[in-house]
Design a protein that fits this description.
Length: 379
């Protein structure tokens, strides 16, 4: 700014045009939600009969009936993910639909979701990518059942977590922050990451739907990591190979799921690794250092850089399990969306190519969650 009053008037006029365009784009998409799209998408009953349907293999297609809600009207978007509020000029990222290769993904139906889960508790457990998913689901549900919800912060065993209750349905949606899934405890030597302990599980297993996620924090070192030592079996060490530590924690988690969760009552999901876009070489644009100017998805159905290491580790751990856990396999479809991050359009003005705008890509994660919850035949 600082160019005199004469420059402020056209600047404000331009911002008003951007805001007007923003409201128009989202409102048009929200209005089209009610349109009949039964000719292009399978119903839930049809999807259950489609044994070969893999919802996670496909591509992104342009669809003017999206987005599924007006994010400007959603009260659940934190400043980190509220891209439109913080001035993102290009909104093309809102108008893509995930198209599986051999079948169709049913549109998210918020009222049906709430009716099917009436009186149930849904809990997201993990890091800030779980929060991304949590906020998206709240926006999808509040668009279908506006107004009638309560927000509270619960504390059990000194652990606080957020609970949103949709009162007309008695559905509770919860966010429990657990960066590693296993425990971190304060001891005389400092903060200890305990690879063999999950005490928070006593809280988690009360829920009817559990959606777990972890990986983002395993790579953090130095002042950014929230622990001082690692307890691995009978050993306490200053540090260790992070991949080995991740594997050990997953072994503890899978054992907990198999022995502590009542699978007659509770459905368990593991949210796959999401991806960051700071290196254009990974998607075929060498020299690009972040996601700021990205406005379209990667073309096609595969990501040039391939799958990240933790995907293989998680899949291997899940394959060994005897009890049912559904894998919310969002990795590739998220890799393709280099255009879906907040970049600089967030409340703290930092360059963020790790998290996702809400509305945006996490809405599709929840669309997939919805399909898996109600359609056992899908993969």
């Amino acid at each position: 700014m600082g160019k005199g009053a004469s420059s402020i008037v056209p600047f404000l006029a331009g911002m008003l045009m951007v805001c007007a365009s923003s409201v128009s784009t989202e409102a048009n998409g929200a209005q089209k939600v009610a349109a009949d799209d039964s000719g292009t998408r399978l119903t839930m009953s049809e999807l259950k009969k489609t044994d070969s349907c893999n919802l996670f293999k496909g591509k992104w297609v342009w669809d003017e009936s999206y987005p599924m809600y007006n994010s400007s009207a959603c009260p659940f978007i934190p400043k980190e993910f509220d891209c439109i509020k913080y001035g993102r000029p290009n909104q093309q990222y809102l108008t893509y639909r995930w198209q599986p290769k051999h079948c169709n993904l049913p549109r998210f139906n918020g009222k049906d979701f709430l009716k099917r889960l009436k009186g149930k508790m849904i809990m997201f457990i993990g890091d800030s990518l779980s929060e991304n998913n949590f906020n998206s689901l709240l926006c999808l549900l509040s668009a279908a059942a506006p107004g009638r919800f309560t927000t509270e912060q619960k504390t059990i065993n000194s652990r606080s977590f957020t609970v949103i209750t949709f009162q007309d349905y008695g559905v509770e949606v919860m966010l429990f922050t657990s960066l590693y899934l296993v425990d971190i405890e304060k001891e005389s030597i400092g903060r200890v990451l305990k690879l063999g302990s999950i005490k928070d599980g006593e809280i988690w297993k009360q829920a009817d739907v559990l959606i777990f996620n972890t990986w983002l924090w395993w790579r953090r070192t130095g002042p950014k990591q929230p622990w001082d030592f690692i307890e691995d079996g009978n050993k306490i060490v200053k540090d260790m190979d992070r991949v080995a530590a991740f594997q050990a924690s997953l072994k503890t988690w899978t054992k907990w799921v198999e022995t502590q969760v009542d699978h007659n009552k509770t459905k368990v999901f593991f949210q796959a690794v999401s991806t960051s876009h700071y290196n254009g070489t990974e998607w075929g644009e060498p020299g690009v250092k972040n996601c700021l100017k990205q406005t379209t998805p990667v073309n096609g159905s595969s990501y040039p850089a391939g799958l990240p290491l933790p995907v293989r580790i998680v899949k291997g751990a899940l394959k060994k399990m005897r009890k049912p856990v559904k894998y919310l396999d969002i990795t590739v479809l998220s890799q393709l969306r280099k255009d879906g991050h907040p970049s600089m359009y967030n409340g703290f003005k930092g360059m963020d190519c790790t998290h996702w705008c809400v509305g945006g890509v996490p809405d599709t994660w929840n669309q997939l969650l919805y399909a898996l919850l109600v359609s056992p035949a899908t993969k």
